[in-house]
Amino acid sequence: MLLTISTTHKPATELGYLLHKHPDRCQTFHLAFGKAHVFYPEANDERCVSCLLLDVDPVGLVRGKGNWKDGLLDQYVNDRPFVASSLMSVAISQVFGSALSGKSKERVEFVDQEIPLTARIDVLPVRGARNVSPGEMLERMFGPLGYAITATRHPLDDKFPEWGESPYYSVELQQSTTVAKLLQHLYVLIPVFDGKKHYYIGPDEVEKLLSKGETWLSDHPEKATITRRYLSKRQSLVRQALARLVEEEANESEDEEPSTDVAPTPQTERELSLHEQRLGAVLAAIRSSGARRVIDLGCGEGKLLRELLADQQFTEILGMDVSVRSLEIAHRRLKLDRLPERQRERIRLMHGALTYRDERLANFDAAAIVEVIEHLDPPRLAAFERVVFEHARPRTVVLTTPNREYNVVWESLPAGEMRHSDHRFEWTRAEFEDWAGGVAERFGYSVRYLPVGPEEAEVGAPSQMAVFDKCNEV
Ligand code: SAH
Fold first, then answer.
1. Structure-model confidence comparison of residues 259 and 52, the more confident one
2. Of all atoms in ligand 1, which is nearest to the CA of residue 279?
3. What is the best residue among 252, 322, 325, 386 to mutate for testing ligand 1's pocket, by most ligand atoms within 8 Å of CB?
């Protein structure tokens, strides 16, 4: 069976970098059930076509396994070598593993970019469901993900038209998307169409499903069918996966900070988590500034945006982040697709980096920058300062960052370590005030500092906040 992925994005040969497979070479990979070949029948600036061809060994597939229930001959004579099935998903993950997880060594800036992509599957066995024809099933699975679908159904045998149609389709899917997302959709959905897996379905399949479906599955109208079929109807696993998908949708933030909780406390009695306190403090500062148009810089998965959206004081809300994945999660958690139009008009998400001047950030009343600066490399801080305080230049800037002095309070945090593996620095209160004071002076702002979270006598509070107000300009 053959999976063809092509693009007309220019220069199209960049597809080779995204798939980590050189367009000039034909490569062969040895998998447990046969071989996978990757080659490019066409690769030029205008168009690049990459093929993944599976060469399944039907004998190898059966050897040592007693799990084909349909009789002796069926073990050897069946459609498995010729159709796209769970074998194709295994091949995708083994041959295009980095691309599937959205990584690219050589094209870091390009992996998140949506490019025109076409995937063609020859051939896909499609099972319908009660009252759902196979053609409609294709539509229901790929349609909500935004694909334009062209499907050709093959007859059982050209020579005997009276035998009727087969369940086999050639399917072409088209959309501007990222290569990672396309592969994740195919990885999950290909085996869903025929619902037969060639291997034992254990709990790790739930993890695979949820990780490959992370940015889209909980929002998919057919998530129950997808989950049921993907997990070959293993009831307990299906229940587990569905519960987690629903939970994910409703999920509140997880705290970045190490937990000091001894025993789990019921939700009603639970003290507000540090992050909730922090968001509350930021929100209060923004509200009292009288701002109506607000930007959340490094908005992550949109926790503050949700609070802003709930308050009608804010008429225009813009969330910006460098991580497309976080923006997608924010989009889903905020249910932007389902908001009534008047609410929807108040909020936008945008991809951007805080270290590059960006005109879209100008003319806002207030900016929130919550737990972001410690993710920037210190040499980039000067660029960040100019982007925010010189060019975007909102009236009020509310910024939080960890207070390093407090780290000793967390017993679970080894001495000297930072709270998060991606933190480039964590400042003491003096270091923070030193930096923020300098910024205020250089850019014409006044600044005040507030502790966030429970204060300890010696080391202060876990988080620190600075509120900058623009001085009157003459
Ligand atoms: N403000 C959010 C997220 C904090 S995590 C919250 O409080 O929940 C830090 C966020 O900063 C991440 O989402 C990360 O993607 C983003 N970030 C890191 N460097 C960035 C940069 N240069 N430009 C924009 N966002 C950045």
1. 52
2. 7
3. 322
What CA–CA distance (Å, rounded) separates 362 from 364?
Answer: 6
CATH of the domain at 118: 3.30.1610.20
| Cα-based angle 460, 466, 467 (whole degrees, multiple of 5) | 140
Give the domain extent around 170.
2-200
Can you tell me the distance from the alpha carbon of 466 to that of 443, in angstroms, rounded to the nearest whole number? 15
Last residue of a domain, one of 200, 230, 249: 200
Q: Within 6 Å (CB) of ligand 1, which residues are found?
A: 298-300, 303, 321-323, 326, 353-355, 370-372, 375-376
Measured CA to CA, the distance from residue 308 to residue 118 in angstroms comes to 38
Count of domains observed in the chain: 2
392 in Cβ contact with 356 (< 8 Å): no
What whole-number distance in Å separates Cα of residue 33 and Cα of residue 439?
61
Ligand 1 centroid to 366 CA: how many Å? 17
Query: Is residue 361 scored above 80 in pLDDT?
Result: yes
Please report which confidence band the pLDDT of residue 110 belongs to, taking 50, 70 and 90 as the band edges. confident
Let me know: does 378 contact 441? Beta carbons within 8 Å.
no
Nearest C-alpha to atom 17 of ligand 1 is from which residue?
298
Please report whether residue 287 resides in a domain.
Answer: yes
For ligand 1, what atom is nearest to the CA of residue 296?
1
Indicate whether 47 and 179 sit together in one domain. yes
Indicate the DSSP class of residue 160.
-
Q: Is the pTM of this model over 0.70?
A: no
pLDDT digits (tens, 9 = 90+) for 266-278: 333 334 678 888 9
Least confident of 121-125, 241-245, 351-355: 241-245
Compute φ and ψ for 276, nearest 5 degrees. Answer: -65, -40
Same domain, yes or no: 409 and 275: yes
Closest-lying ligand 1 atom to the alpha carbon of residue 371: 4
Half-sphere exposure in the Cβ direction for 79 (13 Å, CA): 16
Ligand 1 atom 12: residue of nearest CA: 300
Atom of ligand 1 nearest to the CA of 253: 8
- Ligand 1 atom with the smallest distance to the CA of 354 is 23
* 69 and 196 in a common domain: yes
> Is 222 part of a structural domain of the chain?
no
Domain boundary among the residues 174, 200, 226 is at 200
pLDDT for 267 equals 34
Q: How far is the CA of 146 from the centre of ligand 1 (A)?
A: 27
Q: Is there a domain that residue 218 lies in?
A: no
Question: What is the residue with the minimal CA distance to atom 11 of ligand 1?
Answer: 298
- The Å distance, Cα 60 to ligand 1 centre, comes to 48
Is 206 contained in some domain? no
Q: How many Å lie between the centroid of ligand 1 and the Cα of residue 321?
A: 6
For residue 319, the domain's CATH number is 3.40.50.150
Same domain, 149 and 273: no
